[in-house]
Write a structure and sequence with these properties.
Length: 415
């Protein structure tokens, strides 16, 4: 039987190599197209139900403000455009401002320092009664200089020695691998400052009061809009760690007497906010390695229950983490039971919903097994229609999108 299999393989290869490659290519394409038509990719949701952004948009007089925080690798302003346009369509917001606004972020300690870019887009519904302000944070400028130490490895000096595919993978590794290492070093504070400055711009005004094309420190003392508006974060890979650390940093500043009036006001408003974080390619378990534990852990009941003796010291009323993970994404992890209590600050009052979802297509490799491109599995979240629909309209509610009801399975968890 083995000899027969080897013979069939040899004959097949002979056909391909002796002028019938086009026939073979047609057969392969036909098989792949058939597999694509039969899209049965995984979408399993486990945890609390969630509403998505849509219900917050529909509250009269309220703006929905969303901040996007990218992950590893070099990014340019505008990286979230495809995601944003698909999200706006799902949220039924067909009107947009003629131009976006750009703010070059600066440090309060050194206003001349460049800490990346904040791009703001505005979308509205037909009646202009619903408004989405989308804040796209680009922080990779902060780590770019450090990564130049590897630039020689991307040049012809070394790259010509590699096979083409391996060279592409090596350049990808050189671009993305250093960022988590740099974040653990001295640049971490710069990145978190970029986040807190973006947060300041997000909470302290509306579209008309936001500046454009400026290099400026946000120093607003006005938290009035913060009381009325709703907030959410969308993050990717390392961006999820930055978001969690950034929120903890903002809330802790008022306890250190820095700009006490403003940060105390912000902290007091945060205490009554439910803020979702939609984490794509969630990496919190991996990025926890080697880190010290937060100041407060395993005390959720004390901080998050109204009857708890430290309820007034909470950071947020609820931080709803919706963690998207493709099992074929080599850099993504679901959040296991017990992780939140042990490794995340109890004052955040975190609730977790895990979403195992195949964003990369899975193919049958002609009897050799099933395969999915791990790169597609890592970067495909923000263009997947199911991911967009879940962020926009959630699961297990009357606004849930048809594609989610048809293609996803929800398992509720209880105590």
């Amino acid at each position: 039987m083995r000899k027969i299999n080897h013979l069939l393989l040899a004959v097949t290869l002979s056909i391909f190599l002796n002028g019938c490659a086009s026939l073979g290519k047609g057969i392969i394409e036909g098989i792949l197209e058939k597999q694509e038509e039969q899209d049965t990719r995984l979408c399993e949701i486990t945890g609390d139900k969630f509403t998505g952004l849509k219900p917050q948009l529909e509250v009269s007089g309220r703006k929905m403000k969303v901040m996007m925080v990218h992950g590893v690798g070099n990014h340019l302003p505008g990286y979230a455009t495809e995601f944003l346009e698909k999200l706006a369509k799902e949220l039924e917001l067909p009107i947009t401002a003629k131009a976006y606004k750009n703010i070059t972020l600066a440090s309060p300690n050194d206003p001349t320092q460049h800490l990346g870019n904040l791009r703001i887009n505005r979308y509205l519904n037909k009646d202009k009664t619903q408004e989405l302000l989308f804040y796209e944070l680009t922080w990779s400028e902060i780590t770019a200089k450090d990564k130049e130490v590897l630039s020689y490895d991307n040049s012809g000096e070394q790259s010509f020695r590699r096979a083409e595919v391996n060279d592409l993978l090596k350049k990808f590794s050189n671009d993305t691998g250093p960022d988590p290492i740099i974040y653990l070093g001295e640049k971490r504070q710069d990145i978190l400052t970029a986040f807190s400055q973006s947060f300041c711009w997000m909470v302290s005004g509306d579209w008309d009061t936001l500046p454009d094309n400026v290099h400026q420190v946000c120093s607003s003392k006005n938290v009035t809009p913060f009381y009325n508006d709703s907030y959410a974060f969308v993050s990717h890979s390392l961006g999820s760690r930055i978001t969690i650390d950034g929120l903890q940093r903002i809330a802790s500043l008022y306890t250190q007497g820095q700009n006490a009036g403003y940060y105390t006001a912000v902290a007091n408003v945060l205490k009554n906010k439910d803020v979702p974080i939609y984490m794509m390619s969630n990496q919190l378990p991996m990025l926890q390695l080697g880190r010290t534990l937060p100041e407060v852990t395993n005390q959720a009941a004390d901080y998050c229950q109204p009857t708890g003796n430290k309820y007034d010291e909470r950071i947020l009323r609820n931080t709803n983490i919706i963690a998207f993970s493709d099992p074929n994404d080599l850099l993504s992890y679901a959040l296991p039971y017990g992780f939140v209590n042990k490794y995340l600050d109890s004052r955040l009052c975190v609730n977790v919903t895990n979403i195992n979802i195949n964003v990369a297509k899975i193919y049958d490799a002609f009897g050799l097994g099933k395969l999915a491109n791990p790169l597609d599995a890592h970067i495909g979240y923000d263009t997947d229609d199911r991911v967009i629909a879940l962020i926009a309209k959630g699961i297990a509610n009357d606004k849930t999108a048809p594609i989610v009801n048809e293609r996803c399975r929800w398992t509720e968890t209880i105590q």
